[in-house]
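ok trying again, last paste got cut off:
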Amino acid sequence: MYDINEVSELTGVSKVTIYKKIKKLKELEPFIVRKDDKTYILEDGLKLIKEQLTVNKKVNLEVESETVIEGISTELTINKELINLLTEQLKEKDIQLKEKDKQIAELHKLIENSQILLKEEQKKSEQQLYLAEHFEEVDNKLQDLREKMDQKRHEKKSFFKIFSK
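nice, full thing came through this time. structure:
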């Protein structure tokens, strides 16, 4: 015969658990002896409790295994959904990048055209400066010619004045 403390130590569960087993298991009643306000369990009762605990442990392990498998399955489903979402986002980013590349290429063309136009405008302004300088030079020569001609006329008039007197 074993008292509740000994049964608890032999099975590795608490005294409360042993008392619960005694109340739950009807087939355990023939193996229970009460003496001096103490409860004792016979050898066959101890075996029955151990078997019951083993069965409970197996059931608990199966339930835990199923729970873990369900948890893993749920995690896998969530991970697949997350992967699919991220894949879709990457595809969208690729599309946006291609569009940005097109926009950048167009901007490069616009910049090149602007540079070409700027160079042409610079050439035109250089030509205008050259023409302005050339016209100024021609103007100066014409003025010099007028002055020389005026001077010659004046000399002629002076010359004729001398002879006319």
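cool. The helical segments are 4-11, 15-24, 43-164. Strands lie at 2-3, 32-35, 38-41.
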